[in-house]
Amino acid sequence: MLKTHHCGELRAEHVGQAVTLAGWVNRQRDHGGLVFIDLRDRSGIVQVVADPARSPQAHEVASRARQEYVLQVRGTVRRRPEGLVNPQIPTGEIEVLADEVVILNPAKTPPFYIYEDAPVDEALRLRYRYLDLRRQRMQRNLILRHRVVKYIRDFLDARGFLEIETPILFKSTPEGARDYLVPSRIHPGKFYALPQSPQQLKQLLMVAGFERYFQIARCFRDEDLRGDRQPEFTQLDLEMSFVEREDVMALVEELMIGIVEECSERRLATKPFPRLTYAEAMDRYGTDKPDLRFGMELVEISDLVAESGFRIFRQTVASGGQVKGIRVPGCATYSRRQIDELTELAKKEGAAGLAWLALTEGGKVRSSFAKFLSEGETERILDRMGAEPGDLLLFVADQPPTVAAALSALRLELGERLGLRDPEVLAFCWIVDFPLFEWNEEENRWDPSHHLFTAPMPEDLPLLDTDPGAARGQQYDLVCNGEEIAGGSIRIHQREVQEKVFGLIGLDLEEARERFGHMLEAFEYGTPPHGGIASGIDRLVMLLAGETSIREVMAFPKTGQAVDLMANAPSPVEPEQLEELHLRIVLPDEEE
Question: What pLDDT is stored for residue 592 in this prediction?
Answer without folding.
Answer: 47
